[in-house]
Amino acid sequence: MIVAQDPTLQDFGNDPWWLVLIKVVFVFAFGMVCTLLGVWFERRVVARMAVRPGLNQAGPFGLLQTLADGLKGAFKEDIMPRTADKVVFFFAPTIAVICAMTTLSVIPFGPMVSVFGHQTPLQVTDIPVAVLLILACSGMAVYGIVLGGWASGSTYPLLGGLRSSAQMISYEVSMGLSLVAVFMLSGTMSTSQIVAAQKSGQEFEIFGATVSAPGWYAILLAPSFIIFFIAIIGETHRPPLDLPEAESELVAGYMTEYSSLKFLLFMLSEYVSMVAMSAATATLFLGGWRAPAPITTIWAGANSGWWPLLWFFIKVVLLVFAFVWLRATLPRPRYDQFMRFGWRILLPINLVWIMSLAGIQVLRNADITDTQRYSIIAGAILAVLLLALLWPTRKQPPAPTLEQQASNRPPGSFPLPPMDLQVPPSPRARRAVAEREPANVGAGSGADLADKES
């Protein structure tokens, strides 16, 4: 039986310089190629969901359309606003791209493999706190957006940058808390060790019973997985949560004053961030480069050699498809609704889930009987139910009527618009009704005239 060799932290830092250079070039090429294919993939999938023709002109299946768009964007005029801070305006897009690319450096693409006779892990590097590096790069990427919006010297870019910073603060908290459950179950913050901890068939004890774990933390920690995925959509500013660049409100948000290559860099950072966060999700919750259980049951060597690269790429593509699916399905919420959802819904649910998981971990290690464990769990559930039933509800005051609203208007203000949403009849309909019933012209309301016409 062929068993994949899981890398350890001691396996990193021993590669020759040329092998490290090959890994860095591979990660950079992976990010760039995934960006080019991601734009094509997104436009094809959205077109398919909207039942309309997609990219089908440049190259087979429109594969060269992204390359043509990049060349067209590179040759456009590079505009610099007069009021812009030129240095910050120039370097802001590069900050976003560098932070997105750095995230891929700690993502494990596979197990130990042989490259020109050298045994090396398919990962650029790994550290004991690699997940914190992913969070740091995700938080630092917003600096490029905020600085780009501020340096533009315009109102709409500044509002987009401020929205982005507030959105990052709100959803970075939920994203970080959702990873606490992963740390508690795996016992490490190293990405390679988290992948190793998700081996299918691992056994652990719950309340005295031995349970075989399914492996993926997306199953064991389903609430954390759902919250993390929602948070990364908000972190990467992907539709329908692209509020820092909402075209219906801010023209193009923080990118309004950008053009040519600098605009393309912002687009590149968005798609690289989407791919990097998809790779991080696959690593932390979907077993990383490990094949699903049915494949490993049939094929013993599925997790050895270079095959794990295929399983990892398939997981990333499926997560990118989920990003695109959400874009094509859900409408954009209001900014206040989105912020309220993060602070009032995701954060409390995450805190309750982490506390419950911590309680379960304590009960697993406590030296008490099973009867006492079950009694504690039943008491906790009963307390939550009583709290939910006895929680005071604030009654909403009744909505004021139209007469009350009209009487409360300050003097000199404009009249209230009609609230019944009934469209008055057209002049032609009024003339037709006047010709038939000249005595009743002006006696009825617009709705009455429309009813008489019909």
Automatic annotation (TrEMBL):
Annotated region (Disordered), positions in chain: 398-454
Principal subcellular localisation of the protein: membrane
Subunit structure: NDH-1 is composed of 14 different subunits. Subunits NuoA, H, J, K, L, M, N constitute the membrane sector of the complex.
Catalytic activities: a quinone + NADH + 5 H(+)(in) = a quinol + NAD(+) + 4 H(+)(out)
Name of a matching Pfam family: NADHdh
One Gene Ontology term of the molecular function aspect: NADH dehydrogenase (quinone) (non-electrogenic) activity
Family designation: Belongs to the complex I subunit 1 family.
Membrane topology annotation: Multi-pass membrane protein
Transmembrane segments: 17-41, 87-107, 127-152, 173-195, 215-234, 263-289, 309-329, 341-362, 374-391
Presence of the UniProt keyword Oxidoreductase in the record: yes
HAMAP family linked to this entry: NDH1_NuoH (MF_01350)
Coiled coil: none
PANTHER family recorded: NADH DEHYDROGENASE SUBUNIT 1 (PTHR11432), NADH-UBIQUINONE OXIDOREDUCTASE CHAIN 1 (PTHR11432:SF3)
Protein name: NADH-quinone oxidoreductase subunit H
Protein localization: Cell membrane; Membrane
Function: NDH-1 shuttles electrons from NADH, via FMN and iron-sulfur (Fe-S) centers, to quinones in the respiratory chain. The immediate electron acceptor for the enzyme in this species is believed to be ubiquinone. Couples the redox reaction to proton translocation (for every two electrons transferred, four hydrogen ions are translocated across the cytoplasmic membrane), and thus conserves the redox energy in a proton gradient. This subunit may bind ubiquinone.
Recorded name of the encoding gene: nuoH
Enzyme class: translocase
EC number, as in UniProt: 7.1.1.-
Xref: InterPro entries: NADH_UbQ_OxRdtase_su1/FPO
